[in-house]
Design brief:
It is a single chain. The protein is mostly beta strands and about 180 residues long. It has one domain. The chain contains 1 helix and 14 strands, in the order αββββββββββββββ. The strands form 3 sheets. A 5-stranded antiparallel β-sheet has the order 5-4-2-1-14, with no helix packed on it. It has a 5-stranded antiparallel β-sheet with strand order 6-9-10-11-12, with no helix packed on it. A 4-stranded antiparallel β-sheet has the order 3-7-8-13, with no helix packed on it. The N terminus and C terminus are likely disordered. Keywords: Signal.
Length: about 180
């Protein structure tokens, strides 16, 4: 067990210089919008998926009023989470690029699973739209093919609490049999 713990401590943790940081703003219809940021370990020319992302946070607005937030730290096994980002284009993949529902950030295609008091976003074959308090916000909808660009940040982003994946808990590892501890 001690060797396993030491091995886990020696795993490389990406330094800030090895991370890519992006910010983004989405303008929906009817004065709905969201703003967000994400980071992931730098990679060469490949699409970035939700599994690659280290930190991710979004905030939703109706006019100037903040209506909801969601971060990667809120991810559970039941959360709808899909992200597809093209760093070469500096944009999120949108419908029509061969990937069905390329974005699902705490929101399924029906817009009903962001939960009571919850907030989410998705891009599917019907629209780009928001989920608020467990319901689809149809007033926010835009065409699914609408480009969704992002901006590369010049410096690391100070993410809000709850935006980053939790570090693996060493206590979750199965204990070794007692005889191995002698």
């Amino acid at each position: 067990m001690l060797r396993l713990c030491l091995a886990l401590l020696l795993l490389p943790i990406p330094a800030a210089a090895d991370m890519a940081y992006w910010t983004f703003d989405w303008e929906g219809a009817g004065d709905w919008r969201l703003e967000g940021a994400m980071s992931y370990p730098e990679q060469d020319g490949e699409l970035v998926t939700g599994a690659d992302v280290s930190c991710f946070a979004i905030r939703g607005f109706a006019g100037e009023e903040e209506v909801g937030r969601w971060g990667l730290g809120d991810l559970t096994p039941d959360t709808t989470w899909r992200l597809t980002f093209d760093p070469g284009a500096g944009a999120f993949v949108v419908e029509g690029e061969g990937i069905r529902m390329p974005q699902a950030w705490n929101m399924d295609g029906y817009g009903t699973d962001c939960g009571p008091g919850g907030f989410g976003f998705n891009i599917g074959n019907a629209a780009q739209d928001l989920c608020l308090d467990g319901r689809l916000v149809t007033e926010s909808q835009r065409r699914p093919q609408t480009p969704f660009p992002a901006l590369r940040a010049d410096a690391p982003i100070d993410f809000p609490e709850g935006a980053c994946r939790a570090a693996p808990l060493l206590s979750m590892l199965a204990p070794e049999p007692r005889s191995a501890l002698r």
